[in-house]
Specification:
- With 336 residues, the chain is of the alpha/beta class.
- The protein has one domain: Rossmann fold (3-Layer(aba) Sandwich), CATH 3.40.50.150.
- The chain has nine helices and 16 strands.
- The strands form four sheets. It has an eight-stranded mixed β-sheet with strand order 6-7-5-4-11-12-16-13, with helices on both faces.
- The model has no long low-confidence stretch (mean pLDDT 90).
Length: 336
């Protein structure tokens, strides 16, 4: 008898566009904040230092926004990413809020999660992994601007896991805290090639055309070897902090086109330690690969927002054509 594929789980219910406003309202800060120089203060009470981000519109500095970011916030993200954070925080009351952000940039989701944990009077721990040292400094600044205790982990590959666990243990008494790891997150702990790019380039990735200095977009960039930490080590480290052994509430991944390669290779650890996973997508092929792979494993797809591309010029990969990233939010029924 022929094998009949079974995709999905029959339990997870997708989040519709009409449900997003109410979901985002669950993130609204009750306290009304006063405007501050250089800062955009959003409806969640998160402070963002606008001059720090080269692409952010300067007229946002010194302003407050009580509007929900629908369809987007005008400088960073679409409503679906905020919905992913809101869904991850729903029902969290009996364990610390745990968030891991891979390809973190200035760690907007890790910091927002810790701000939300504080507003809800919950303990919280977040780990943000970023390969660019300049963006790691942004992440530290962003945490400090929001009064979130922060520590930075650097070192050779074999030192990263040990230092991460030490940082998590050292800060375990803090109500909320963030650990920034200056490294790439990858399949294994070791070294990877990473491009040297201008600080305003948020599209760098662990991918180079073999035998060249060409990245996935066709740009010629110098590359250097940098340390990498395994996704499995990240998840196991944060989940072993404390006594509850609860899974990560949100794994947020934005790795510019290598998302399927990374998640396919680390799926066992992700399934064991992750409740919800938000994946930034960068081409339609990887979107389909992710859908089939995780639905076949029994995960539920709560949000499916495809990327958009403009097929002009030439690029060495499909991701090189992408103009607007997509996002997929997956629910792991095995740890709910």
């Amino acid at each position: 008898m022929a094998h009949v594929p079974s995709l999905g789980n029959g339990v997870s219910v997708p989040i519709t566009a009409t449900e997003i406003p109410a979901l985002l309202e669950t993130l609204r800060a009750e306290h009304v904040f006063a405007a501050e120089p250089d800062m955009l203060i959003d409806w969640m009470g998160v402070r963002t230092r606008i001059p720090m981000l080269p692409w952010a519109p300067s007229d946002l500095a010194g302003t407050m926004s009580t509007a929900l970011p629908i369809p987007d916030d005008g400088y960073r993200s679409e409503d679906v990413e905020y919905a992913a954070l809101a869904r991850a925080l729903q029902g969290v009351s009996d364990h610390p809020v745990r968030v891991v952000e891979v390809g973190a940039g200035w760690a907007p989701w890790a910091v927002a999660a810790m701000v939300q944990a504080r507003l809800r009077k919950l303990p919280g721990v977040a780990v943000a992994v970023e390969a660019d040292p300049r963006k790691c400094r942004w992440a530290v600044q962003h945490a400090e601007d929001n009064s979130i205790p922060v520590s930075v982990v650097t070192g050779k590959p074999r030192q990263l896991v040990k230092r991460l666990r030490e940082a998590l243990e050292h800060n375990s008494a803090a109500d909320q805290h963030l650990v920034v790891i200056q490294a790439a997150a990858w399949v294994e702990t070791g070294t990877v090639e990473f491009p040297e790019a201008p600080v305003n380039d948020m599209g760098t990735a662990v991918w180079t055309l073999p035998g060249t200095d060409v990245d996935y977009r066709g740009a010629h960039l110098a590359h250097q070897k940098i340390p990498a930490i395994a996704v499995a080590d990240l998840l196991e480290s944060i989940c072993s902090t404390g006594t509850d052994a609860a899974p990560v509430d949100l794994l947020h991944i934005d790795v510019q086109g290598v998302e399927f390669d990374l998640l396919h290779a680390t799926a066992a650890a992700v399934q064991e330690h992750t409740r919800l996973m938000a994946v930034g997508t960068h081409n339609r092929w990887s979107e389909g690969q992710l859908q089939y792979f995780f639905l076949e494993r029994g995960w539920g797809l709560l949000i499916d927002s495809p990327c958009t591309a403009h097929f002009t010029m030439t690029h060495p990969t499909l991701s090189g054509f992408t103009e607007q990233d997509g996002m997929q939010l997956y629910e792991n029924p095995f740890v709910l």
